[in-house]
Amino acid sequence: MNKTQIFKTIKSLEGFNKSIEHDSFEKSKKNTDKPFQKYEFLGDRVLGLVISEYLITTFSHNTLDEISRRFIHLVNTNTLAKIFRKNNLGDIFKHQLDPNSSKNSIYADALESLIGFVYTRKGLIFSKKLIMELWQNELDILPQKDPKTFIQEYCQKKYKTIPLYKLIEEAGTKHKPKFLVSLKIKDNEVEAEGVSKQKAEILAAKKMIKIINKFSK
Fold first, then answer.
1. Among 94, 111, 170, 185, which residue's CB has the most CB atoms within a 10 Å radius?
2. CA 58 → CA 46, 54, 61, 62, distances in Å?
3. 140 carries an active-site annotation
4. 147-216: which CATH architecture?
5. Which of 44, 65, 66, 153 is flagged as catalytic?
6. Annotated catalytic residue 112
7. What is the CATH number of domain 3-134?
8. Which residue among the candidates 21, 109, 112, 201 is catalytic per the annotation?
């Protein structure tokens, strides 16, 4: 069953128009008559189950850390919003979903509510088909670890120690601060500047990763 057939089936389901009315712009009204948020709650769990099962089955030889990184990528707000936009799912939500909105959280919530609604009407097998179809271009992505985590694990594994970050200078103004930090691992040391200490450390970690990759080739 392709995407067109899936969407046609969804639109034909009893209660479709009323059941996925998007109320994210009116949550302050606390309208308990709208089931949108309940479907969103359910859809989040269904998505998690389907993605978890897929990852454990498909990447059985991966470490749990790698599987977890894949899972986080596949169910995070940015990925859901990307899938929502790519598949023009706004055509399904014609109620209170602002077509001019660029808020990823709204699109992510809407997609989860759709999954929850579909599950209540068509069950798990059809829901899996829907998710696999929409997520097909994201399923095999293994996101890179964030730079500081990579450096931390590298140091602990290779040298049984932790990386040494040091604040060298704090300058600039209150509105445009500058932080200069250094990162040292054994005989290698780099410096980086950022608008916060955290961002400076991330940039320093990225520089160190380039050095590590250079010497590991």
1. 111
2. 18, 6, 8, 9
3. no
4. 2-Layer Sandwich (3.30)
5. 44
6. yes
7. 1.10.1520.10
8. 112
